[in-house]
Automatic annotation (TrEMBL):
Taxonomic source organism: Elizabethkingia anophelis
Protein name: Uncharacterized ABC transporter ATP-binding protein Rv2477c/MT2552
Signal peptide: none
One Pfam family recorded for the sequence: ABC_tran
InterPro entries in the cross-refs: ABC_transporter-like_ATP-bd, ABCF_ATPase, P-loop_NTPase
Lineage: Bacteria, Pseudomonadati, Bacteroidota, Flavobacteriia, Flavobacteriales
Length: 185
């Protein structure tokens, strides 16, 4: 829960007890929260749901919105399905459509593989590997951490461990192991 709270704070969805955090002026963030329930309470279809997040009148056109839903495999009548009847995986796919629509250069993802099937996880992994911006990711998916991350930041009770390396290198690094023992003692 500490990681989720950290992500809520840096995305502006919660406030820190002390200290400040500011994004750079040229950054645009998109956040995939651990719990997306609040996004799907309204009884509207997926086209209208995604329209809520458009930035210009030009983007409100149904064809434009359907294009983003189509990228997440919602085609034809599926795009007219009510938000209130979606499975966990469908909700995640809608959230990814929303993130693509936002055109962010920083993605903040809290356990993005939850509720996804293997094919969707593989597609997400490949997409994140090719993403040109920054990905701030929390995950229990070892393969995703290994293939997507080139910097590991571990928040511990006694400090932060910050290393530029793959996840497997991080797990095997002698200095990191010593720091982890010290910070978790």
């Amino acid at each position: 829960m500490a990681i989720t709270e950290f992500m809520e704070i840096i995305t502006g969805n919660d406030t820190a007890d002390k200290g400040t955090f500011n994004w750079g002026v040229t950054t645009k963030q998109s956040y995939m929260p651990l719990d997306n329930t609040e996004f799907f309470k309204e009884n509207i279809n997926l086209v209208d749901w995604l329209r809520q997040f458009v930035q210009t009148d030009e983007e409100r056109h149904e064809e434009y919105v359907r294009g983003f839903l189509g990228k997440m495999l919602f085609s034809g009548d599926e795009a007219l399905k009510s938000c209130t009847v979606l499975s966990g995986g469908e909700k995640m796919r809608c959230m990814f459509s929303r993130m693509m629509l936002q055109k962010a250069n920083i993605l903040v993802l809290d356990e993005p593989t939850n509720h996804l099937d293997l094919e969707s996880i593989t597609t997400l992994n490949n997409t994140l590997e090719n993403f040109k911006g920054t990905v701030l990711l929390s995950s229990h998916d070892h393969e995703m951490l290994q293939t997507v991350c080139n910097r590991i930041i571990e928040l511990t009770p006694k400090g932060i461990i910050d290393r530029y390396m793959t996840y497997d290198e991080y797990l095997e690094d002698k200095k990191v192991k010593e720091l982890r023992e010290q910070y978790y003692a």
